[in-house]
Amino acid sequence: MSRYALRTVAIGYLLALIAIPVGMVFYRTFEKGIGAAWEAVTTPPAQHAFYLTVVIALIAVPANAIFGVLTALLLARGRFPGKRLLNALVDLPFAVSPVVVGLALILVWGREGWFASTSVIFSTPGMILATIFVSLPFVVREVEPVLREEGVDQEQAAATLGANTFEILRRITLPTIRWGLTYGVILATARALGEFGAVAIVSGKISGRTETLTLFVEDRFQSLDLAGAYAAALVLALIAVAVLALMTLLQRRHRDH
Amino acid sequence: MRAPRRAVPWGSAASGGLAVAWLSVIVVLPLAAVVARSLDGGLSAFWDAVTTSRAIAALELTVVSSAIVAAVDAVMGTLIAWVLVRDQFRGKAMVNALIDLPFALPTIVAGLTLLALYGPTGPTGIDIAFTRVAVVLALLFVTLPFVVRSVQPVLLALEPEVEEAAASLGASNLTIFRRIILPALRPAILAGVGLAFGRALGEFGAVVLISGNLPFKTEVASVFVYGQIESDAVTSAAAVSVVLMLCSLAILLAISYAGREVAR
Predict the structure, then answer these.
(1) Model's pTM, two decimal places?
(2) Is residue A17 domain-shared with residue A69, that is, in the same domain?
(3) What CATH number does the domain containing A120 carry?
């Protein structure tokens, strides 16, 4: 097959599967003018959904950043039995369906759960737990290879010169992993903002209370308010595009250094 | 002189314990609860729950469409990676950036975008909403990057000399691809396909709007589990969840086994 035929097939496939459908959402959103789209995403439930989405990400992502770095250190530096098991556990959230995640949280924290609680399921803490679960591997997987590559020489040198644990972390370890950590945080943020299935189950989808932006999209769609659904979807799509642009920009800068 | 052991305290004792505790509470404990709940009524109840005709139909649809998606991904993903590495054309950087979009885009938005184009109100006249084709299409969308991104770096690192030598000896393009390139790419393709298959098995958000969730027809396993939770049939939901997790596990093991065979 000639190179042009291959190129045409590849680009045609991407256009039909991704580019044109995403373009369609842009078109549908602004079909009735920018004013209508703006109105659809500034209703009180929409605003609350946006606010809640940001709050959840602001808690879940830093938590995953801190514990992600600790886990990466453990996997890169520690020597202990069961390390391979731990390594596999970190990838588990990628392999489990979001729906199963939601069910799992209900079975632990729900009304009849192992740690029955009335303030987790159908409320924000449960949604945060679900978001932490699904975005857990990113920071670990970005930071661990960097730690492995850099080794421990600098840290040991600092320790011999009398630096304490905290100083080593602040002056040596963190600067070393800053790019990996940045990528991990960006990817985790994108995943946190976009999670749907797990959050749908643990939230109870109460409009204006436990509805995130993705749940708002579904709610508008099911209520046959397509304009609202498309407009909110567009906001999420723009965030996704911004994340991609940011990653590309950072990677280019990282390479140049 | 060896540096004292506490020189690199990260990765041991307290901080390590903290990391393990975190993983246990966030990941292990909830999944253990699912397994425990699925066995609440004993093995026979578990078996009954996963062998109702509706559960079987959902699991079958999920596995079959995931397999179709994995096969299409293997071919199209390799082809796209090839074009991105070996071809030169204007706008290639943009095409390359487009590949990551399905990872960055929330799944519910992915479903909505496909519905906007290929749904009843789409401009094309093609309406695949609420069909099995729609399920496959949604899964193709969300799994697109896996094979492309695992094959691309291997293709980049491939030495062109071997191919040139083969060509100078009279091998056709097809022979070169089959005898030289494909064997080098096989582990990467397999790895990508495994990830894509695993993702497709559990996908929910992209499928839920466009499939219509018709039992026995377009209801995939994750949507079935969702419905069971909504109607308070939690034990049945847990049982099917466990089957889904076992399927993912089997895929992971099969891929790692196949990878080892290839390496040999």
Answers:
(1) 0.92
(2) no
(3) 1.10.3720.10
Is residue A142 domain-shared with residue A242, that is, in the same domain?
yes
pLDDT value for A189: 95
CATH 1.10.3720.10 residue ranges of chain B are 42-263
> Hey, are the CB atoms on B234 and A103 less than 8 Å from each other?
yes
- What is the Cα–Cα distance from B36 to B263, expressed in whole angstroms? 38
Query: Would you call A92 and B204 a contact, using CB atoms and an 8 Å cutoff?
Result: no
Average pLDDT over residues A110-116: 90
Structural domain including A106 reads: 33-256
Same domain, residue pair A8 and A80: no
From residue B160, alpha-carbon distances to B16, B88, B157, B176 in Å are 46, 16, 9, 11
Counting the structural domains of chain A, the total is 2
Rounded Cα distance, A250 and B76, in Å? 29
- Contact residues, chain B, for A202 at CB < 8 Å: none
Q: Stretch A82-88: mean pLDDT, rounded?
A: 87
Segment A84-94 shows an average pLDDT of 89
CA–CA min distance B14, chain A (Å): 10
Q: What is the average pLDDT across A3-17?
A: 94
Q: Give the pLDDT of residue A1.
A: 56
B55 CB within 8 Å of a chain A CB? no
- The chain-wide mean pLDDT, for chain A, equals 91
What is the Cα gyration radius of chain B? Answer: 23
Both A23 and A42 in a single domain?
A: no
User: Rounded mean pLDDT of A133-160?
Assistant: 91
Lowest mean pLDDT among A4-13, A106-115, A137-146, B121-130: B121-130
Tell if the CB–CB gap between A152 and B225 is shorter than 8 Å: no
Closest-CA residue of B relative to A194 is B106
Q: Domain B42-263, what architecture?
A: Orthogonal Bundle (1.10)
Inter-chain CB pairs, A–B, below 8 Å: 266
User: What is the distance in angstroms between the Cα of A185 and the nearest Cα belonging to chain B?
Assistant: 13
Coil, strand or helix: which one is A255?
helix
ipTM: 0.91
For chain B, 264 residues long, the average pLDDT of each consecutive 10-residue run is: 47 78 95 95 94 96 97 97 93 90 95 93 87 97 96 91 89 89 92 94 95 94 96 95 93 79 62
